[in-house]
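User: Run a structure prediction on this.
Assistant: Running it now.
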Amino acid sequence: MHKMQVAACLALLAAFAGVRAANAGALEEGAERYRPYLIEGVASALTGARALRERAAAADLPGAKKAWLSARAGWERSEVFTAGFVPELDAQIDAWPNADSGFHAIEAKLFGAASTDVAADATGLVEHLNDLHGKLKDIKLTPQGLLDGTVRLAYEVGESKADGGESRISGTSLDDMRNNIAGIDFAYHTIFSAALNTVDGKLDEMVINRIEQLEAIVATPDLPHVNIADLRQTSEELVVALQSASAKLGLQRPTLEAQAR
């Protein structure tokens, strides 16, 4: 009887190990499927930054603002990746609130001072985005790092962007949140959803539901119409659900601090 129990336990452990190995392979494949989306987002930001530099050099304030907005959208869709994998470039491109360079230094001049005197900052932004774009083909995309980034971004949407956000001067914080949530949605469905569904369909459904709720909350005409309490609560629920999913995916529990993993 004892030998049968031991054998049964060993069989369960072997099956569990097999599931984890299969999940690991699926997650690695999902991370690679995420790469083209990431490359496209950063390429869009780079194209917008180049147009911004050109329009600013021509003293075209409306054109420079439009190009800044275009560049910003591509960047915000990519934030699942940026803080954890390239923190130095992230700080140079998107430092906030103490922005000495990058998007927000330019934003203050274009939208705050109505000035196109951004040549040095725009050139720096183009160079940093170009540097990042050149790294994306070969950089190692780990499922752990992407889950960490997804969790951090979900928390950021509810906690640091809900009160006016980081793009207050340009008035585009609502668009920031929408693009962030689009990035979260794509990363989750591309990398994690199928693997989680095989081991816990209800938890997968919960994550998807909270993402859809966030999308609905920010589908308003302007930021004052966003229900901030609902946004924060749903964001926190998504964070908790993703943290709960980590063990079932064979990954470490994500933290809210940026770290390379």
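DSSP finds ten helices and no strands in the chain.
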